[in-house]
Amino acid sequence: MEQMKMMLVDDEERFLSTTQKLLSRKGYDVLTASSGTDALEILRTHNIHVVILDVKMPGMDGIETLNAIKRNYPLVEVIMLTGHGTIDSAVEGLKFGATDYLTKPTDVQDLIEKAEEAFGKRQVLEEKIRVAQSRTVGKSAREILRETGGQR
Amino acid sequence: MEKTSYANLRRGILVSMILVPLTTFILILGIGYYYFTTSLESSTIATMKRIVEDHRHMIDSFLTNRKANLEFVLDSCPFRELADPEELHHILLNLQKESSTFVDLGLFDQDGIHLNYQGPYKLVGKDYAEAPWFKEVLKKGQYISDIFMGRRRIPHFIIALKREAAGKTWVIRSTIDTYMFNDLVKKIRIGKTGEAYLLNADGIFQTERRSGGNLMDKDPGVVQRPPSHTGIKTFIEEDSNGDKYLYATTWLKDQNWLLVVRQEKADAFRFLRAAAYIIVLVTFLGGGAIVGIAFLLTGRIVRRMERLDTEREQLGGQLIRASRLAELGEMATGFAHEINNPLQVMKSEHALIDSIVSELKEKGDLQPSESLSEIEDSMEQIDLQISRCGAITQSILKFGRQSEPVVEDIALQKYIPEITAMVEKKAAVQGIALTQEVSEDTPPVHGDRGQLQQVLLNLYNNAIDAITSRHGAQGGKLVVGARAKEDGRVEISVRDNGSGISPEDRKKIFRPFFTTKPVGKGTGLGLSVCYGIISKMGGIMEVDSEKGVGTTFYVILPGSKQFRGKNRWNK
Fold first, then answer.
1. What is the DSSP code string of B443-480?
2. What integer is the mean pLDDT of A133-140?
3. Which residue from B293, B287, B305, B289 is spatially nearest to B7, judged by alpha carbons?
4. Is B411 helix (H, G, I), strand (E, B) or coil?
5. How many structural domains compose chain B?
6. Which of B227, B264, B325, B454 is the most exposed place for a label (fewest CB within 10 A)?
7. Which positions in chain A touch B389 (Cβ < 8 Å)?
8. Which residues of chain B have pLDDT under 70?
9. What backbone torsions phi and psi does residue A31 show, to the nearest 5 degrees?
């Protein structure tokens, strides 16, 4: 089974490093980005499954980053990380295609659970895509000919 | 405003409300009284003057007539006729026909010898050469005497006239009945005490005075005389008895007699006194009315001002509280938000340590020991405290994040049971009897459903906490009620029989972060959030409590506008 690849996006460096360490210890593959721009850069070069995205960041904020991710990498699952005060923006995030949200200060266990859930969803989605693609690929030339010929 | 300044205000209003109308009032009365008095006095004096004038005229003409009678005798009768007793008798009878005051008639020669006499006495032959009247008449040609006793010891006065013809001089003299004369002057009567009398130049009574004063006596009073012979003098003077009299005096035309008319001042000015009494009465009654009304109005004004001030103060207090809450909310939100990030870091660090420790334990690098369990206990505590901080920041954020209420009409008859049902189970577990008293005629309120729910649940939970802290798990009572207030607003009440709130705490109860709950149990934001919510809906919250008896929270909200309109129609 494929290993889940996560990316943490937050402007708080220490949070990133500690959480990364922690998740690594639990056996997860985690990348970190300290800004939306960094996150998009990493997504360009890595196959990331789940992104944990802080809503409130300097520069490109969470919602903007989410929109960019969803536009360029629609299959990436995004979990919004929000202070309670910005729960409205979390809701907004859900409307723009985020999978779920976490409120600060969040428990690592909760984070892992939600990430797993999102990864599960991603896998189901990928599976569906694979099946759909293999069906098209699996058709023989004859079958295709028959189909088109029959139409004539 | 301070109590004393109300007292000052009351005094100020009272003084001006009494002084201004009272001064005007008294001024008007005074001016009225002055003019009334002046005109009454002058008319009284004018009347007096007229009487004096009339009577002087009357007396003058009496004297003139008597003199003219005698002149006529002199003119019409030659000496020889006058010297004849028969003829003289005849002349006297004619004179007496003219006026009954003629008592006798006598003829004298130039040496003062009484030549002829007709009358009640025997006077013929007597010598009057040295009598003052005779000397006077020889000198001036005529003479009217003062009243004197003469030889006959009876008061009388005489008129004597001289005639010269053919080198011969003779004098006729007639005695005038003083009693008749007396009556004429005495007849004058003004009011109750008005009287008239004659005085001679020496102040001797020439007529009797009704109020005492015999003929020929000296007038004991001081009588002022007019300077000229034709003028009239009026004055007020105390007489010997100490009574004040209004006098009018004038000289007779042909005689050195003073006609005096006088009236007791009190009698002459009795209308004045009546007017004075009425004015005093009016002053007291009117003044009393002014003072009474001033007191009444001042009381009313000051009470009303006090009420307005109290209302304004309350309103001001509410506004200050509301604006302070809003500011605080904004600040707290930003603050809480910033706290969340370090909390997140701490939480992560904690989780990391936790995971490292568990790993070390698993590997056997860390042996179970007292120190290890202390570390674990400490770690647990850190986790707990971080969670606590998280709870606080979340409450703060909730407090600061009140969105604008979406107001709609809420029928409390249905709404309150719905909300109450949410805490029914909890109340039952704590042995609390939950009662609902929503009056059927309670109008719908104008408010936000979700926010009102938050407020009510908060109040319920507070009530339940207060009840359990006093009664434990039985004997609690919680009553939720709703009714229409007189002013069209609606009052929702949540009453408990819990531990109650002390008066000092009651003042602070709606302040953010004020709590009586044990550390870690409450954030102290619940009621301030409720307060903010209700304020935004245009309502107010109040509390009524007694320590050890219970607490009632009131939520007073505006009633539905439609309903209010309808209500007005019905009225």
1. PPEEE-HHHHHHHHHHHHHHHHHHHHHHHTTSSEEEEE
2. 70
3. B305
4. coil
5. 4
6. B227
7. 105
8. 1-3, 149-153, 180-181, 321-323, 325-326, 329, 398-405, 519-522, 561-571
9. -110, 160
Contact B271, B40 (CB under 8 A): yes
| Domain stop point among B116, B145, B173 | B173
**B221 plus B260 within the same structural domain:** yes
Same structural domain for residues B281 and B389?
yes
pLDDT at residue number A151? 47
Judge if B353 and B412 occupy the same domain: no
Q: Domain locations in chain A?
A: 5-151
CA dihedral B277, B282, B284, B290 (to 10 degrees): -170
CB contact under 8 A, A25 and B359: yes
| pTM for the whole structure | 0.45
* DSSP states along B356-397: HHHHHHHHTSS---HHHHHHHHHHHHHHHHHHHHHHHHHHHH
Give residues with Cβ within 8 angstroms of B199, minimum separation 6.
Answer: B205, B206, B219, B223, B257, B258, B260
CB contact at 8 A, B468 and B408: no
Question: Hey, what's the torsion of the CAs at B18, B21, B26, B27, to 10 degrees?
Answer: 130
Interface test with B, best of A9, A14, A104, A112 (most B CBs within 10 A): A104
pLDDT tens by residue, A27-59 = 999 999 999 999 999 999 999 999 999 988 888
Can you state the angle between helices B412-429 and B449-471, rounded to 10 degrees?
30
Question: How far apart are alpha carbons A98 and A95 in whole angstroms?
Answer: 7
What's the token pair of residue B514? Answer: 């004020």
Q: Number of C-alpha atoms within 13 angstroms, CB side, residue B149?
A: 5
At a CB cut-off of 8 Å and minimum separation 6, what does B138 contact? B110, B162, B169, B171
Sign of torsion, CA B153 B157 B159 B160? Answer: positive
Comparing CB atoms, the residue among B343, B349, B401 nearest residue A104 is B343
What ipTM was assigned to the predicted interfaces of this complex?
Answer: 0.77
Among residues B374, B400, B426, which one ends one of the domains? B400
Q: Are residues B488 and B369 in the same domain?
A: no
- Tally of CB atoms within 10 A around B358: 13
* Contact present, A67 and A39 (Cβ < 8 Å): no
B487, B561: one domain: yes
Measured between beta carbons, which residues in chain B are less than 8 angstroms from residue A32?
none
Q: Which of B73, B115, B67 is nearest to B90 (CA)?
A: B73
Token readout for B270 is: 């009795």
Characterize the bridge pairing of strands A5-9 and A50-54.
Answer: parallel
Give the closest-approach CA distance of A61 to chain B in angstroms.
Answer: 15
pLDDT at residue B292 in the model: 92
Region A5-151: CATH code? 3.40.50.2300
Q: Does B355 sit within 8 Å of A105, measured CB to CB? A: no
Residue whose tokens read 């003139």: B64
CATH number, residue B241: 3.30.450.20
